[in-house]
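Hi support team,

I submitted a single chain yesterday and got back a structure, but I'm not sure I'm reading the token output correctly. Could someone confirm the output below corresponds to the sequence I sent? I've pasted both exactly as they appear in my results page.

Thanks,
R.
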Amino acid sequence: MLSSRLYAGIGFSYHERIYILYFMKRFISAVLFVLAFVAVPASALTLDAQGGICNRVSRMGHFNMSFYGHFWYPIDQMVFAGLGGGYQELNNVGYIPLSGSLWVRLPIGRTVLPVATGDFGYMFGKDNQMFWRAGAGLDIKNGDNSSIIVSGGYQFLNNSGRGYIYFHAGILIEM
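Hi R., thanks for writing in. Yes, this is the structure output for that exact sequence:
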């Protein structure tokens, strides 16, 4: 009975039809999302985990902890696009940053490759705000599928108008 009502589109109120369309839209989006990852080969997933410090430019003596990680999709061997997130303390206030990210290895060297990174996203915390990061570092190859990362850069918070310098070290794993 329900399937015939749904097929015909009759017997439902306006709000019920909107809810059904909303549910169908979400369901189809979820199925497409899962299929996108099934269609991508397993070797296409790369991730990193980093930890370090993040300090205001004017207060270099006050060290704040900063942890960050990314899921990367390799466009080729030198360029990765991905999503990042982590935890930062800035002036004794905890934030959870989420961002879209870009990682570019520069073709200089074989074992130690310079990298350029960029992030743009949103920080959730006491003072929610947009932020961006730009940095550089070294990708020190351990083997074919892993690297040690040493990086640093500049981070700008939109609402507060403050700049921060960060230094991180971590590991990159290419699966």
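A quick pointer for reading it: The longest helix spans residues 14-39. Let us know if anything else looks off.

Best,
Support desk
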